[in-house]
Amino acid sequence: MHIALDAYGSDNAPFPEVEGAILAIKENVCNKILLVGKEAELTRELDKYFYDPLRIEIIHSSEVVTMADNPADVIKKKTDSSILRAVKIHQEGKAAGVVSAGNTGAVMASSLLTYGRIKNVLRPALAVPLPTQNRPEIILDVGANVDCSPENLVQFALLGSLYSKFFFQSQKPEVALLNIGEESVKGNDLVKKVYSELTKHEDINFIGNIEGKDLLKGIADVVVCDGFVGNVMLKTVEGVALAIFTMMKEQIKKDWVAKIGALLSFPVYTYLKKKMDHSEYGGALLLGVNGITVISHGRANPVAIKNAIKVAARIAESGFINHTREYFERMKS
Q1: Residue 259: which residues within 8 A CB-CB, separation 6 or more?
Q2: Residue 100 is inside which H or E element, if any?
Q3: Tens of pLDDT along 282-298?
Q4: Taking the model in full, what pTM does it have?
Q5: 153 Cβ partners below 8 Å, 6+ apart?
Q6: How many CB atoms lie within 10 A of CB 19?
Q7: Per-residue pLDDT tens digits for 219-257
Q8: Smallest Cα–Cα separation from 33: which of 107, 98, 80?
């Protein structure tokens, strides 16, 4: 299995991408990685490592998409960008999936225009696994759609349920709706309508509303919201987790008693840090398109890149896309 990797997506590209690709190969995440980007620079970077050269191939592209680039302009003007080239490699069947830590809008636009939407899917959604106290939760949408209709959110629930079944082997995924209260009468008109529709849907195991304070408890397998709410929520959770660990480090440095306590509690600290680390989950999967695109964080480190490649490979092996396509094609147009 080959995975195409945009080598110029992350904030520190191409260093995390190159090392992440090597980690993936050494752990046999996939058979081969197609590293897309500037050939000369990637060759110099790869020369720093010991690896099997038959399992990493450089595909040259001359252009790089920045975070400041407009997604629509990328498609029209940067036709030889590493993002667009990687997506096209997948679309041509030369790779089983694509991974990028680049401009989210550009990656989504490139994927949508290249693969196209699955028939009867109204809008693609970005889904990310969120670590919790109990079990990983799939949250969607986390940024693809700022404004949504009730029909969009119902489809997100279906897409998330299918994802949970194939990725986490959930037999009957429990779906919750992110809201300002647990009661069905709470929230704006959108979530009230969605609540009513989810309650009636035969293919969705809807368990009701969930509040922000309960997100990290792992109450549900899938949590549905619009892209505006989801993106704010995700970045808030990431920021809080980072702030907590930073404050702990600062306090430990100030107090010798705290240093002793830190040594004794180091295994617990390490466990919590790993469990809450977004890099362990790789990235967000773009659901609803006729292809596999995993979008990693701009701050992705080599471990995050490796795990994003793992997500793409697992999705390709599972047959998730074909199953999703078959499910939605059975729906009325």
Answers
A1: 252, 253
A2: strand 97-100
A3: 789 999 999 999 999 88
A4: 0.86
A5: 177, 190, 191, 194, 224, 225, 226
A6: 19
A7: 899 999 998 988 888 777 777 666 766 766 766 666 655
A8: 98
Tell me how far apart the alpha carbons of residues 221 and 161 are, in angstroms, rounded to a whole number. Answer: 8
CB-based contact 139:233 (threshold 8 Å): yes
Q: What is the DSSP pairing of strand 137-140 with strand 284-287?
A: unpaired
| Range 187-209 average pLDDT | 92
Q: Which residues, 6 or more positions from 318, have their beta carbon under 8 angstroms from its beta carbon?
A: 166, 167
The sheet with strand 56-60 has its strands ordered as 56-60, 32-37, 2-6, 97-100, 293-295, 284-287, 125-130, 137-140, 222-224, 174-178, 205-210
138 closest CA partner among 215, 229, 236: 215
DSSP conformation letters of 54-69: GGEEEEE--B---TTS
Tokens of 222: 């899938």
Backbone φ and ψ for 81, nearest 5 degrees, come out as -75, 155
Bigger pLDDT: 268 or 176? Answer: 176
Angle at 44 (CA atoms; ends 42, 46), nearest 5 degrees? 65
Q: What rounded mean pLDDT belongs to the chain? A: 87
Backbone angles phi and psi of 113, in degrees to 5: -75, -25
Task: Give the tens place of pLDDT for each residue, 260-280.
Answer: 655 655 555 555 555 555 556
CA separation for the pair 36, 82 (Å, rounded): 6
Classify residue 218 as exposed, middle or buried by CB count within 10 Å of its CB (0-12, 13-18, 19+). Answer: middle
Rounded CA separation 286/277 (Å): 21
Bond from prior residue into 150 cis (ω within 30 degrees of 0): no
Question: What pLDDT does residue 258 have?
Answer: 60
Give yes or no for a contact between 5 and 36, defined as CB atoms under 8 angstroms apart. Answer: yes
pLDDT in tens, 103-117: 888 999 999 999 999
